[in-house]
Amino acid sequence: MSVIPGGRAVALLVETSNAYARGLLAGVREYVLAHPGWSIYLAEHSRDETDFTWLEGWRGDGVLARIENIEAAEFIRHLGLPAVDLSAWRFVPEIPGVETDDVTIARWAFGHFAERGLTNFAYCGDARFAWSLNRAAAFAEQVSAHGSEPHTLGIEQSGTRVRDRDRLAEWLRALPKPVGVFACYDIAGREVLEACKIANLPVPDAVAVIGVDNDEIIGSLTAPPLSSIQPDTIRTGYFAAQLLDQLMTGISVEPAMHLIKPLRVVARQSSDIFAVDDPLVAEALRFIRDHSDQNLDVGAVLQCVGLSRRALDLRFDRVVGRTVHGEIMRVRMARVAELLSVTDWTLPQIAGRLNFSHSEYMSVAFKRFTGKSPGEYRRTVRGGIRTY
Fold first, then answer.
1. Which of 7, 10, 145, 248 yields a CA-CA distance of 20 to 30 A from 331?
2. What's the pTM?
3. What CATH number has the domain spanning 102-232+265-271?
4. 102-232+265-271 and 279-382 share one fold
5. In the chain, which stretches have pLDDT less than 70?
6. In terms of Cα–Cα distance, which of 302, 276, 309, 278 is closest to 288?
7. pLDDT digits (tens, 9 = 90+) for 159-201
């Protein structure tokens, strides 16, 4: 029973050592801010923690935990308190769980490579984690459906322990080129980029790389900067706290796994490749990318490559599945989304920076393209307080 008069004492068995877990904690914080009365107990520990003596003598009402091993599962059962699991392993299937949607993450990673014309695909995973295995299976399914062969490397060491960089470099050398490598998370993505240097493989021309978590420190410190898929960790943590609150008030909650879709693909230099077999389409794609901050029209692209609109549209449709105008809008809207995510600029400032004639036109085009207004998109990706 809680020792907090009129409140709830909640323990968080969530590590603070990585971007994903810190995002979960930020989501819990949002819930606590919106629903005062929680007292949080959080200690510094690792993802594979098996020593829970720091909770000895604790008298609480509920637990939010990433249950990553059998010892943690047994401890949660021993506590006998309402609990919600934030791990993909499901070691305690009798309690509800909340996790990121690994199938969607894998589908987005494959689509990111495929729309750049890549036909060779590989996955670098970590066999210790269920979410890595889930992503490997989903990615392989996408690649196989495309008619290609998935190349998978599962490495069991990560984090502070040293991966076998030479083994990773050897694996990369043997892959057909150019290849898109989907790394199970950003730490693995950084290690793939380091192994590419050892193997003397140019990135992204020979090896394009994308990770998961959008850890901005890792992404900006790698050379080149690492592309990544950003999970909606804040929503995940918030929803888990909401479920726990229901359990602690006696509301019945089904012991199901709730999957939260990721937010976006953050494209950086590590996957900036156009591996298409049509040199004029590749030239046009590069021209569109290089002029994405300008009020670019189809005519300028046609002048660059020296083709008629019909001829270039036919080639674009065959190679990338879009018209020239469609590609221009995709790239331009991606730039709008990027500035909404990483700046506090007003809509007129963003419109001016990207040379839109009017911010109103930009807003209408953005909502048509993404299904969200610029304000809605910014609140979603930057973690404004929300109700789920």
1. 145
2. 0.79
3. 3.40.50.2300
4. no
5. 1-6, 155-163, 382-388
6. 302
7. 433 457 889 999 999 999 999 999 999 999 999 999 999 999 9
User: How far is 367 from 326, CA to CA, in rounded Å?
Assistant: 15
Q: 271 and 180 in contact (C-beta within 8 Å)?
A: yes
Separation CA 131–CA 213 (nearest Å): 12
- Predicted confidence (pLDDT) per residue in 79-117, tens digit: 999 999 999 999 999 999 999 999 999 999 999 999 888
For the chain, the distance separating the N- and C-terminal CA atoms, rounded to the nearest angstrom, is 28
Encoding tokens for residue 38?
């929680």
- Provide the residue ranges of all domains of the chain, joining segments of one domain with +: 8-99+233-259, 102-232+265-271, 279-382
User: Domain 8-99+233-259 belongs to what architecture?
Assistant: 3-Layer(aba) Sandwich (3.40)
The encoded tokens of residue 285 equal: 């794609």
Q: What is the CATH code for 279-382?
A: 1.10.10.60
